[in-house]
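Folds abound. A case:
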Amino acid sequence: MPAMSAQVTVMPSGHTFTIEGNDTILQAALRAGIPLNYGCSGGNCGECLARLVSGEVSKVHPHDFIVKEVDKAKGALLMCAYTAVGDIVIEAGIAGAEDIPQQTIVTRVKAIEPIDESILALHLMTPRSQRLRFLAGQSVRLEAGGAAGDYYIASCPCDDRHIELHVRRDRQAFGEWAFAGLSKEDAVTLSGPAGGFVIQLESRRPIIFVAWDDGFAPIKSLIQHAMSLEVAESMHLYWLADKLAHYQENYVRSLADALDDFEYRMLDADADSAQLAERVLAGHPDLTRYDIYATGPAEFLDCLRAGALARNLSVLGWHGEVI
């Protein structure tokens, strides 16, 4: 019988997560934000084939994909069809941005959360049979009412069918439509994901996140993903406001209140790029052990990168996204 709660360790990445009740290995991994390789999630394609290294599993869903007997003897199983009986260790691949296929999904508006006259938080829900595969930091294209626009996802891949996006009124046709004509339960076609501004799963170093205006959306997704995976020793957020206010400051404050290893600072973009970069980096004289994920205008990112490298940041620790 499946265990009420069991720990799964994924090799060779070393990630761990917990399975509750009759959840499959795949379902539990995705809820934990761990992007295991998979395709249909219904037992037809074989993309979620993994190998049981130790422990015991139990089949909880039928599958049409045929696993060869020689592979079964080596521990092969479909993660979408099996759950754990006690703690297990599996060998399975972790998906990168290049591994995730393009998807087109008709979603429904779950909620429209006006923040001020220039930006809103749009909450979409995918169908039960079509969860969106994406990594934190990626973007999607939205279409409704004949209008379209490209937006970064602000929610975590661990949020199941819920997708949050931050939509500005003054950019792209979809923004005007979202403010003027979009209502709860309306259909919105989502296509994607796109982009490689994603968390580096193998790193366990402290992370500095830097967001510029609504570039907070992908940063928010990355923060939530890092939290769900417990991949960062500590997290520091710097949010610069230029054209927009710090529109979700209450959310950021709640993270700081709840987490011992999370600090933040709200900054106004009221100086030149070099000065702003120096304000961000002033409290970090040595960045040898850090990763930086930053969004912003190209000039600001160039200054921030140069200042970070001068403070011993590894080239591999820099991740920038021009917005």
In short: The helical segments are 25-31, 69-72, 173-180, 216-229, 249-258, 273-281, 298-310. The first strand starts at residue 5 and ends at 11. The first helix runs from residue 25 to 31.
